[in-house]
Task: inverse folding
């Protein structure tokens, strides 16, 4: 038989098999767009803005729907109610980590971010306990963040008010905080090995956020040396790039909205003054600043579609049957941009977290670090760093843009796994 005929026959069988499998699987799964054989719904997704694609699908199929990323189904949860119901009300059942091929190749299912089952539970428990023993959540950590904030200010002074790209300077500060916790030591901002390490962290986060990536043991204890090594790597990656990226985006938004910057600096002058460093105790007396820090995190949507989850057992969810191991995407963007909770949600408006009396108000819809059992273990540290680093910078410098505020583009440069700000330069003018 002609080899070409054999090849065509085999491909046809493969396509028909794929179509049959998808049809049988879809009977009890949530509704969704009809997938193509082999490639699923990829052609219907804008890989440059996945969150926007999910929002369009939700308007047609509702808050719980199914997409095929290739041949496997993925259940998507859109909106606060669906996300909360899964990650809080059925937290244990949705606590699995979904497939992340690149990370699986690199981390081998180890560490705290991409592990599963008993390995994840034991690793997370050990990590949280160890970080607490090293000072996480205690006054000593705030002291380290304040010290690092002053080091950051001194480094920014060296720019002498000249235009600079703040990427690596802002990356040094949160990375040094993690170093001080894990190694009990910080590094000079010009240290060659330290800067090489930061470059690798930054590049890894950029690769994870590219649209192309989105289209892809000790028997007695899980705490093997290899697992602990990867866990430390996870802590650096999560603890450095998240805060660094938020700081870069925060400064860009403050350049875009100088009236907000002026009000924050006015509040800093009134509450903190110039003779001492800002502290976390000041936050309760600085509602507008606290509000602005929250609004930055809300509007940038750092991890738009969250880390992929997976159901740990077969589950009936809202009258749909979701088989064990099915990947689940929870759209954090849909919660952070909920128009019922945040009027004009696309607009950067610090008033979103203020009540009618000008006091700071909490919101259950504020979920930049996810919710439930797999929420970020370092959320508290990230909030502390963002508040103290930003207030210390604004206490010591005026921010000067190289272009008019109206011409500043805050559209993410990449919007895959993470939402990265476009590159920009600014001047730090000492006050």
Result:
């Amino acid at each position: 038989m002609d080899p070409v005929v054999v090849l065509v026959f085999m491909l046809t069988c493969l396509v028909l098999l794929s179509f049959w499998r998808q049809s049988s699987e879809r009977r009890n799964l949530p509704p969704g767009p009809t997938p193509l054989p082999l490639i699923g719904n990829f052609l219907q997704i804008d890989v440059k803005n996945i969150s926007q694609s999910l929002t369009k699908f939700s308007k047609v199929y509702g808050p719980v729907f199914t997409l095929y990323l290739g041949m496997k189904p993925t259940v998507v949860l859109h909106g606060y109610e669906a996300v909360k119901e899964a990650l809080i009300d059925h937290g244990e059942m949705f606590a699995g980590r979904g497939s992340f091929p690149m990370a699986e190749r690199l981390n081998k299912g180890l560490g705290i971010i991409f592990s599963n089952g008993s390995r994840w539970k034991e690793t997370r428990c050990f990590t949280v306990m160890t970080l607490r023993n090293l000072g996480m959540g205690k006054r000593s950590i705030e002291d380290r963040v304040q010290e690092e904030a002053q080091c950051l200010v001194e480094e920014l002074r060296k720019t002498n008010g000249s235009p600079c790209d703040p990427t690596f300077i802002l990356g040094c500060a949160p990375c040094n905080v993690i170093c001080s916790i894990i190694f009990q030591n910080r590094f000079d901002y010009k240290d060659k090995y330290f800067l090489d390490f930061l470059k690798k962290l930054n590049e890894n986060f950029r690769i994870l956020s590219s649209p192309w990536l989105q289209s892809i043991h000790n028997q007695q204890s899980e705490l093997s040396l290899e697992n602990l090594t990867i866990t430390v790597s996870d802590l650096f990656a999560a603890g450095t790039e998240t805060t660094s990226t938020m700081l870069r985006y925060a400064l860009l938004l403050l350049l875009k909205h100088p009236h907000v910057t002026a009000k924050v600096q006015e509040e800093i002058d009134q509450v903190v003054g110039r003779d001492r460093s800002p502290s976390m105790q000041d936050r309760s007396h600085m509602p507008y600043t606290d509000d602005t820090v929250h609004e930055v995190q809300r509007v940038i949507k750092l991890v738009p579609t969250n880390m992929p989850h997976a159901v740990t057992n077969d589950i009936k969810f809202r009258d749909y049957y979701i088989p064990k191991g099915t990947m689940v995407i929870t759209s954090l963007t849909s919660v952070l941009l909920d128009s019922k909770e945040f009027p004009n949600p696309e607009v950067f408006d610090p008033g979103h977290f203020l009540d009618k009396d000008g006091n700071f108000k909490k919101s259950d819809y504020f979920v930049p670090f996810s919710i439930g059992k797999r929420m970020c273990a370092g959320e508290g540290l990230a909030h502390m760093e963002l508040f103290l680093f930003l207030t210390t910078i604004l206490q010591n410098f005026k921010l000067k843009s190289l272009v008019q505020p109206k011409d500043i583009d805050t559209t993410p440069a990449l919007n895959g796994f993470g939402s990265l700000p476009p590159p920009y330069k600014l001047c730090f003018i000492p006050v």
Notes: The first strand starts at residue 64 and ends at 68. The mean pLDDT is 88. The radius of gyration is 23 Å. Residues 225-256 form the longest helix (32 residues).
